[in-house]
Amino acid sequence: MATIGDVARVAGVSRSTASYALSGKRAISEDVRTRVMDAVRSLGYTPNAGARALATSQTMVIGLLAQFLEDEFAPAMLQYILGVSNTARELGYDILLVTEDDGTRALRRITDSRMVDGVVLLNVAEHDERLPLLRAARQPGALVGLPEDCSGVDVFDLDFEEAGRAMVDHLYKLGHRELVLVSQPDHVVERGGAYVWRLQNAAHEQARQRGVTLHSVFGASHQPEVGRDLHAVLDAHPGATGLLVNNEAAAAALPSVLHERGLTAPGDLSVLGRYSDEFARTFSLPFSSIESAPDRLGRMAVRQLVRRIEGEVGPGEPHVVRFVSPELVDRGSTGAPPRRTGG
Amino acid sequence: MATIGDVARVAGVSRSTASYALSGKRAISEDVRTRVMDAVRSLGYTPNAGARALATSQTMVIGLLAQFLEDEFAPAMLQYILGVSNTARELGYDILLVTEDDGTRALRRITDSRMVDGVVLLNVAEHDERLPLLRAARQPGALVGLPEDCSGVDVFDLDFEEAGRAMVDHLYKLGHRELVLVSQPDHVVERGGAYVWRLQNAAHEQARQRGVTLHSVFGASHQPEVGRDLHAVLDAHPGATGLLVNNEAAAAALPSVLHERGLTAPGDLSVLGRYSDEFARTFSLPFSSIESAPDRLGRMAVRQLVRRIEGEVGPGEPHVVRFVSPELVDRGSTGAPPRRTGG
DNA sequence: CTGAAAGCGCTTACAG
DNA sequence: CTGAAAGCGCTTACAG
User: Fold this and answer.
1) Any strand C atom closer than 7 Å to A41 CB
2) Angstrom distance (rounded) from CA B39 to CA B31
3) For a disulfide at A39, which of A11, A227, A228, A242, Cβ 3.0-4.6 Å?
4) Domain residues for A237?
5) Which nucleotide is nearest to A18 (CA to C1')?
6) Residues A84, A208: one domain?
């Protein structure tokens, strides 16, 4: 394999000149520059990434910590990963993907050994074990998901509270007065998945203010349990005219459940979910939804991380907590509540 | 950040001794060993991965090239990625995930710059553009998917031909004599996705030998088109009593389609798919299927790749083409064909 | 505009 | 059993 020394020899210059000709970090005569470039081409030279990393303390690699938790819906994770990966590449970085169960150990390994210039954490819990480690690391970190303590890291998340309010309000304005909210499983909450109750609490508060009755339940994260959960909650609240779904597995199961009950949306029941458009297309979900924007969140996290890595944002500058505003994608599954006989 | 020099100084030994004490590559007195280990602990020392890579020419990183093609069903890809990633970690390797559209450029970048010790290619086409490059690279490569020319790489794939035969035979033995096979879209074939026609051709040949009528169609890879495709093919062949589904999107759409037609499996129609068990659980698919074993294939590819990287298998030793035998997972969706009135 | 040299942090023959 | 030194392949002050 050709080294910069080979390039220098063929071009008849010193190694430093060859290096500068390639980096453009100092003025080089036209003659020398072309000789170096020719040598590079003829030798098929590519810099050795490890050597460069050692010399510059920059790896051009970003660590991506994704956890595939038993009680979460894996396909939803893929969108975040792709958003991060594609944005990183656009900015000149590669991705070291870590799916290890023990996120703490993984984080320590890749930061201490300086394999990465920065880290993106997915699936951040309220009291995330990985955070103290990340704050102590010399590399900057960006999170997708909101922890209780945001110090020392840049944080990006959907505004789940606004989402909860928007979901209730949307159906309220259409005339609904009794709604059901299906959330993620309760053990997601116990594990620290604050996004579940952030949406749920805000929805309840908004419902209270509007005078809307809101029943809420935790649904399972897997089939077929979640289908049974949906049946159960619809059985339990026959007066409900609107269904809010903050649970991807439930959303995926809902078309079958509606079929089984002989219901259509919005004729019999208005339905409003919270998932990404990509998710809706993959699962052919015909329900209007609050866009969860995983690709956009992944993109924002990487952009900010790279700004920190490259010193555009100094280590002293305050960290950012940015919420993406929920946007409603109308797929026609909400409308006025059905007129009840005798109502 | 502490270096091996700091460790050596604190332990009162030379850098080489410190290094050997850590690697265990030569005998070390008990006294020195504990002093070194204590120094490591007190300093929180972790070796610099770049420096080690430069010295050893080993990065302990495996490149994973995944392409997310427009006409393929993304969630199915996740299982391969996790199989590769988890196995790599067990064997001490990290994963550099590349999702770039231009796989050729990506492959060149990570191999020429020696960022990785080896490469796993996912989603390999019959005449895959990345293969010539991979053969020319100094790192070994393992493929998931069967190209026409397997030279110079280790290849792992499901035995799609056996799968096609097994699917036909399974329903033949139950008494079915007219079947429909729904495959992936035809442009997957045009792009070089040989697995589509490998299964299809073998199914046709087997059907011919058994005297079974087999209709086959290409289905779309997205909703809602693929649902319409399913309706169309069932309309077109009212005499068919069995449905073979080699198309993940079609499998995911099928429960709704059956509902819409008022059919149940296996009472009205026997259904046999080809997808992973994980996929079946995620989408709550109640259909028996040929297990496509993505995690197992990813695992096999990484194992063999690591054997080559670590020299357990010499560069001269012949490359491997290994097919995983299809296994049928019975979910109770196949049975005897319904008795036709007047039949 | 260019070159000789030091240094990044490891590992591993070589010597004792 | 241990140490001094060379080398991996880059980049970047320092000097001219």
Assistant:
1) no
2) 13
3) A11
4) 160-293
5) C2
6) no
